[in-house]
Structure formats: C-alpha cells, structure tokens
Amino acid sequence: MIDEKEGKIWAIGGGKGGTGKTFITSSIGTYLAKNRRRVVLIDVDIGGANLHSFLGINRPKKSLTNFFDMGTPLKNLAVKTGIGNLSLISGDIHSLSSDSIKFTQKLKLFRHIMKLNRQYVIIDLGGGSHNNTIDTFLIADKMIAVVEPEIIAVENMYHFIKNALFRKLRMSLKEYGFKEIIDHMWERREKYRIKNLRELIDCLKDSFSYIGDILDNEISDFTIYLILNKIRSSQDIFIGSSLKSILLKYLGINAKFVGYIEYDDSIWRSVRERRPFMLNYSLSRSAKEIEAFTENLIQGKELKLMRS
Ligand SMILES: Nc1ncnc2c1ncn2[C@@H]1O[C@H](COP(=O)(O)OP(=O)(O)OP(=O)(O)O)[C@@H](O)[C@H]1O
Ligand SMILES: [Mg+2]
C-alpha cells in the first residue's frame, strides 16, 4: 500500500552526466502514474532538457523559459504526456545557462515547485555539481542519487553528495548565525589539520559544543537514496553497499541503497521507438527492477541483498 505521507518532492541527481537520471525520472513517473498517482515531472536540466524524449513526446512549446522570462506560473507550464496522471514541465531554456539563474529567480522557482498540487513532484537534475543543481536537490523530500558501477561515476557522486551536505550544513548554521564559523574553519583547514568534511564536522563539534546538536540533527536527517544503474554482473550490485559504507565513513551520513537496473539495450531502443520504456517493455527484467526500487522509495525501504 502506498503511503502518501512519504516525501512528495523527489529529486534525481548524482553528479556525473549520462548515468541514467533522466531515464529513471521518466520511468519512476510512468510507473507511479500507471498506479493512479498524480505525478508531475520537472526537467531542470537547463541547456540539456531531454525528458520529453524518454516519454516519447515532442519538445513542449511551453517551458521554464516562460517562467523565468515572462513570469508564467509554474503550474501553467505542465503539459500532458499522453500517459494518464502524468504531466511534464519542460526545462528547455533558450536564453539562460544554469549558472546565470539569479538567486531570487531560484527561490521563486522553489516556492512554485513546493506549491504544485500533485501527489508526486519528480525533479530531473542535470549532471555536474553546480550550486543551482545542488540547491534544487536539497529542496527535495527524497534526494535520490543515480550512479554507475564505475570509478568516475562513484567519484563524481561522492563529490556531489559532499557538496550537497556542506551547503546544507552551511545553510542551517546560517539560520543560527554561525555560518562564518564553518567558512572560517574550512578556509583554514590546513592549519586545523582538517582533511575532509567528516573531520571538519568533528572539529566544529569539538570547538563549539553548542553547534554540535544542530549539526547532528542535520546530518541524521540527511538521507540519500542510491540507485545503481547499468550494472553488468550480479557482483556489481554489491557496489551499492560499498557506497553506503563510504558515505558513512567519510561524511557520516546514512544512505539507503534502494535498487539497481541492469544494462539493457531495450532502453535506448524504446527512446528510438518513441515509447516510454515502462509501457513498451513493461514485462522486461529491467522494468521489474525499476518497479522494485520505486516501491522501496515509496516505503523508505532498502534493497534486501542476499549473498550467495
Ligand atoms: N540501464 C541502462 N542500460 C542501457 N542504457 C541505459 C540505461 N540507463 C540509461 N541508459 C542510456 O544511457 C544514456 C544516458 O541516459 P540519461 O540521458 O537518462 O542520463 P542522464 O544521467 O540523464 O544524463 P545527463 O547527465 O546528460 O542528463 C541514454 O542513451 C539512455 O538510453
Ligand atoms: Mg539527463
């Protein structure tokens, strides 16, 4: 049974380009919509918007350009996808690059996203660790990171999550008027012999016990949901558990490894056939894998691993 109280805004990111974020956004959205959830997908991959292609529809005429340039309310930009219950807000922005969005515009976008009247709002982020991308990731109730089982993707994902946590801690310390402390220590990290974010956090707690509780609360709330995509052997699945251990050891954060998708040529084939994968190949093994981790996401559960 789907628990509607579980997070409403889901953001799909992860740092590296091409790991499958957009494919996964479209597939999760299609699956939820098929199960009678009212869903809107938002493509915020500014400059590289291609979510419509995974849904098998033309590039929508309305897009975030209308929001930023003409002030059209975000809810008026949702277009039908041909799948009942599923609409799309396209990210195609002609005049802007991600780093040229002003701070006030960004906050306005976030306010509008939070007011969208849907059971699920699913945000597809672009690759890279730009501050705008990370801030969008941070507004979500569920922060989902997609990673491939290869070293560059793992490194980029680690970098992305570390930056996200750092920004989150900075923002919360700012609320309490302590932002300068974290900036001061990080800028002088050599003097304080701080090698990584975990050590920075420990050092902050040791030096300023009164901010320890703030940091502990933020870190314990900071859950990352991991999806491993394009796996090529059953051994690859265990990389998910290794990633969890790395995030705990070096950043002190909890990650939940919710599932994986195998490498499957029918995924690009369905794009070429202009049909959503979850409709066209609904009985395939990879479609079942997507269903399984979407259910885990809804219920906040992890993948159950069985070692042979
Ligand atoms: N499990 C998979 N097996 C095979 N191909 C896949 C799989 N997942 C995604 N792909 C393919 O990988 C390519 C990249 O996917 P996608 O565009 O979803 O990545 P992305 O993370 O959104 O990239 P970007 O960072 O550029 O936005 C696409 O051609 C897609 O069809
Ligand atoms: Mg993409």
The first-level CATH class is given as Alpha Beta
Instruction: Report helical residue fraction.
Output: 40-55%
Mind telling me the CATH superfamily name?
Answer: P-loop containing nucleotide triphosphate hydrolases
Rg of Cα set: 20 Å
What is the helix/strand order? EHEHHEEHEHEHHHHEHEHHH
Q: At the third CATH level, what is the topology name?
A: Rossmann fold
Number of strands: 8
Tally of individual domains:
1
Structural class by sheet pairing and helices: alpha/beta
Bound small molecules, by name, code or SMILES, are: adenosine-5'-triphosphate, magnesium ion
Strand content: 5-15%
Biggest sheet architecture: 8 strands, mixed
Please report the number of helical segments.
13
Overall spatial form: globular
CATH architectural name: 3-Layer(aba) Sandwich
Strands side by side in the biggest sheet? 3-4-2-5-1-6-7-8
> Whole-number average pLDDT?
91
